[in-house]
Each structure stands twice: as structure tokens, then as C-alpha cells.
Amino acid sequence: MFSDTSTEARKFFSAIFVVVLVISGVTLWSTQTRANCVNVLIDYGSLDSSNADFKKCLTVTGEITALELMQNANFKLEGTNKYGNNVICRLNNLPKPTEPIGVKGHEDYIEECKEMPASFAYWAVLEKRWQVIPNPFDLNGKWAWAQVGVAELAMKPGDGLAFVFVTNGDVKFPD
Asked: Where does the chain cross the membrane (predicted)?
């Protein structure tokens, strides 16, 4: 009888030890992969650009707005006349202010940045929040639409920020 209790206790403590090891490992992995930077991705999509898509972790020392982050990294963001920099109309002068965008069905359209960009050709602003313990069922750990404009979007080390040029509703979320 004492032998059965001893065996059960060993199984119980072994299981607790495994759980603690797994949680510790995930936490250690997570803290090691959280650099002091924000992962920035830019997908120029169909824009006629000599710029290659951009993917880099931009160094930050604490919380910063997406607008400040991009300006500090020498990216040029242009908003609209009506909404300012809360709505991104151009990124690094794209789409070009004097040339048609060339979107199928709207080949002659030139973006003027007066109000909202055209629904068939615009910059999508996406965010991904860093998590201490990754949870595959939590939507906050996946790329999602930014809920505020870039002038108000607060980014912290480990977060992700993406600008994806969307044409005809085809949003290409980053992997």
C-alpha cells in the first residue's frame, strides 16, 4: 500500500515538473525572441516601385507611435488633407502623386490624397502584438487591422507593424 502511494506521488510530481519545465522553456524562448525593436514589414504590392519589399526589426527603447517609428527610420509617410497622418495615403512617395496607379479596372486613377484613399487602392496598416506566452487561439498574436491611425498606434518592443498596398480588396496579410 505504501508502495502504491509512493508511485502515485512520483507520477504526480513528475507531471508537475514537466509542466513547469514547459512553461519555463516557453517563457525563456519568448523573452529571448523579444528584441528591443519593432518588426516592420512593407509590401509594395502592385506599385511600380524600384523599392524591394522591406522587412526589418527597427530598434526602439520603449513605447513609440507607429508614425514616430517610421519617421525615425527615414520613411516618408503622407496622410490625407482631411485626416492628416492618421490615414496613410503615400509611403515613400508611393503611389506617385502624378502617375496613374494602374489598378485593373481603374487604370487611369491618380491618388490625390484629399480624403480617404480609393477603396480599390490603399495602404493597409496592420499590427501584431507581442505575447509573453504565445497562444495559438488568441487573435492578438496574429496580424490584424490597426484599430487607430499611425499617429496614435502605440508600438512596443516585440510588436509588429506592416504596411501592405492593397488593390481591388486583395489584402496580403504577412506570414
From this structure: 12-30
